[in-house]
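User: quick one - fold this with flavin-adenine dinucleotide bound?
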Amino acid sequence: MNKKTENADDSISVRALRASGNLDYAKELAAIENSEKAADIRGGKRSTSLVQRLIYGPQPDCSEMIPVCTSEQSHRHRQEIVAAAKACLSQGQAFTADGKLSNELRSAVNEYRVYGYTIPEEFGGAGSGYRELAELEEDIAANGLGGLAVEISGQLTIGAGGLMAYGSDEQKSLFLPLLAEGQLMAFALTEVKVGVNAKKVSTYVELDEANDCWRLFSVGDSNKLYITSATHGGLLAVVARLGKDSRELGLFIVRLPESDRQKGEDADFGFSCKPSGTEAFQTNINSRLSFDNFPIPSSQRLEADGLEVLFYSLAMGRCMLSAMSAGFQRLYASEAINYARQRDGVGGKVIKHELPQLSIGIILGGALQSRSLCHLSLSQNEQHINLSGLRDITKSAAAGSLSESLACAERVIGGRSLNEESPVSATRATAHAFNIVEGESDLIILGMVREITGSFVGRYMAGLLKVLDDINLDKQGQPVTEDKRILSLGLTSFAKFPVRSGKAFLKLFVSKDLWLLLGWIIKHAIMDILSLPKRLLPAAWRPRYANLPASLKPYAKYAEARLRDQKWTYLGLNVFYQLTLTQAQIPLLIFGKRIESLTAMLAVVYAGASSTEDIQAVAALQAELLKQKVKNHRVLRKLPAIEKLRHRLQHVSGFVGENRCTLTNSLEPQAIPHAWSEL
Ligand SMILES: Cc1cc2nc3c(=O)[nH]c(=O)nc-3n(C[C@H](O)[C@H](O)[C@H](O)COP(=O)(O)OP(=O)(O)OC[C@H]3O[C@@H](n4cnc5c(N)ncnc54)[C@H](O)[C@@H]3O)c2cc1C
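Assistant: Sure. Structure tokens for the protein plus flavin-adenine dinucleotide:
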């Protein structure tokens, strides 16, 4: 490690990775975090995020969590759009012969300017808000047209959303009316050899000054892959390096040719657009794109970092994914209820028995949870509150509950849920894809933990890290070899390296950062002790919960109290793992999932409170299910068990890594689709 590679703005996670010798990982994480921060600033999000305040205080006002209703007029408008789509479906016109969304369907809904739903009216759009769009997305997905919801969501979040925030006036007036008209726009980040490691994009552009354009190169394993809605003649926002060896990522709007082109035959560039072969989003277009010396007019570069635009747009993309998840789960619930009501099981109709009832309850609860988190995020967004943490929880919880509900629907409906024409079958692969797209769910939960704890760690834990950082450097300021690295101070380090550990301990003791941390601990311990009488008071007596129905009050109190406790859990994790925490993914994920369940509990409680009696019942059931999950996701108390699991896992991974696992090493794996070179 070279100290000069450090940046004062780097998060503690980045510095910890660097100090523990993971230089590449540290570099990638730093780049991603910087793009995320820049995207938040562009979105005008400066106030502290809700999740961070729920854990570290000050406690948010309850009114912040109560969803705001959309107008009756927008409700009627939505019903008309869904009716138009359903009419197309019932007339057999919604899909083409190869099962893709038809132009008839697109035209029918675009009578209501759906493809420009959130685009301002001055650019030909409907000028609606994202909350109205979320309700529309949910209803479209619930009515068996999930593919249409996916297409519109992409069009208006990573398509129009990025353009509206980062496009020049000229770019906006050129492209937004085309989008509102219904022309498809895709967003291309992923490549054959680049997936979650987004910063490693290898597609690049070169300036062609003679022709006042850029030339795009995305050949071989740099091809853009799995690009939803990318089609011949359509529009595409493509992320590319600004030069083959540059680290800077740019974003370009491209009009794709009407047909494939062979370089040298009829053009000085090559282009191809082929189906990617994915089973998910099967009614959508999904493509693999190749560009060779492809011209892009200079005016079509967005003056922004490609990743930053992606993160900016992803916030709304994740909310829409959650809205669609709510819709899919309503669809599953309706199918499961219909089947269970009619089908005779052992000893009477299936619906009469507790286990199918539980499955149906889980699906309904998942639908309400996805809807509630989506609208909570959107109303925070409208108030310009930072969505750090909440957008990730919203997405991860939506994808997780959808997978769970899919399994529940299959359990209730049995064999028929696997029939070709079953709506459950039609959405199965898409439901699974929701865990992968718009950020892999577990990885974004780890990112959420980093984000919401970032300012605490930066302020109060930096001293400890700095001391460890320093003892891992030799006299010349170079990193010590791996076998001499001390990643956490404790009995083991004292036994192995007594002199260096002793020095580190002394340094720590005289460091003002340690006293700052102790000050924080004392302050928060006193605050928690003072609030103890309030915590012991039953929820029904607390004025804070006066407006909640009796069945929901205890859950609001439980979720808020447990969220506040998480600051101690995270402190405990830091003390236990020290420099190794960033790589301790299992405990971090359990911790993140606990925060996810508690935040989801608050969202359903407040959404339920302002709803009808049936929704309140679903909210109370979901809150109870979440409470039981929270109890299973204890972190500090389970540390010995977690460490045993990690130890056992390392042992197995050793065999796997050396290809010595007899369960698999005699088997020949299939060739990986869209293979890449290892070079
Ligand atoms: C139906 C569909 C539509 C899509 N639409 C688009 C689109 O429109 N535009 C676009 O740009 N992309 C799109 N994608 C691509 C999608 O965003 C990627 O599939 C996703 O980013 C994951 O990349 P990958 O599949 O290459 O997985 P990989 O990058 O190969 O990762 C595989 C797995 O490795 C694990 N992993 C990797 N690194 C770590 C780590 N440090 N710690 C722990 N685990 C790790 C994760 O579990 C991850 O899921 C789409 C994909 C699908 C399936």
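One thing worth noting: The pocket of flavin-adenine dinucleotide is lined by residues 186-190, 195-196, 226-228, 278, 280-281, 286, 433, 436-437, 440, 443 (CB under 6 Å).
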